[in-house]
Design goal:
By secondary structure, the protein is mostly beta strands. It has a single domain, classed as 7 Propeller (Methylamine Dehydrogenase, Chain H). It has one helix and 33 strands. The protein starts with a helix and ends with a strand.
Amino acid sequence: MSAARRSCRALWGALALAGLLGVSGCSLWGGSSKPKPAELGPNVPVLGVRQAWTARIGAVEGVALDVHVNGNVVTLASSNGEVAAIDARTGGDVWRTQLNLPLASGVGSDGRWSAVVSRNAQVVALDGAREIWRKSLPAQAYTAPLVAGHRVFVLAADRSVTAFDAATGYQLWRQQRPGEPLILREGGVLMAVGDTLVAGLSGRLVGFNPDNGVVRWEAPLASPRGTNDVERLVEIVGRTSRVGDSVCARAFQATVGCIDAGRGTVLWTQPASGSEGIDGDGSMLFGTESNGTVAAWRRADGVRAWTSERLQFRKLTAPLLLGRSVVIGDDTGLVHLLSREDAAPLNRLTTDGSAIAASPVAAGDTLVVVTRKGGVYGFRPD
């Protein structure tokens, strides 16, 4: 991606963070007109997939949605504060509630407690469908909270990490790290790896002691470069791929890389120009670049195994690796299943025509996708 296009994307996120909603003459694609999306051709299903059920949630606009999976239950939220846990086996509600406040990010859940963040920078905790507490944050948060070990962890835009008691909302600790002045209005990385809390902060994965917030290690995936704050933006973006202590992630428009979270050391990094997270398994990693190129890397050393331009300029989600398929959503509501071996098309699924709002997830034997209009779709193999 050119410096102008990179700067435009970062500037949009920075202005959005500041509450400025319009930027004239700024295009992610670097010009006054967008490149034409790649022609798809007819769908020839190689892998049989059927739509098993549909459900609804409110519209998903302006919220960094992370669909949380716990067993056969997916927990998700809408822009206007509707939060629902849906049984992926049937598409029916386990529970549903309306918080009546606009959301900036969500959902984190451990199967009992769930948490979201409102646009007025409050973290809201639920026990099932019942709200149990709200707490103000020092800054807005665009990353879904992490609910683990009877605690709620929140990564905010000022690069602070705060831990709350999940049952009471009591603040256990807060730790803030230095970073560049600007941030992205996108979901970042906040995850548990063994007994370490791992957060993405300014191009680094940082390991914290979850009991007290003490920093155990820092592993840089990218370093700020450029002549201004916009060009120096290198946030870590979700999703990530974890296998044991190996955690692989993407730094915005800079690199893809893996670390050993047990030791806090970087294993490798490779240049990459995407803005969405990655997925993978013990042998391969998969990601989508900003121009719609789909790429695969060897997990062991980061060597690129293949690239595909079949979906160029289609504004893709982060991928989901599901069996032999790499599953990717686009901004026309299509869900593409590509072969993990060479990106050959295996099937193409339709939804409601609006953009896929979050990275696809798998719950049991069901593939679940959510659209901007609030459609929730469950697909299963034939």
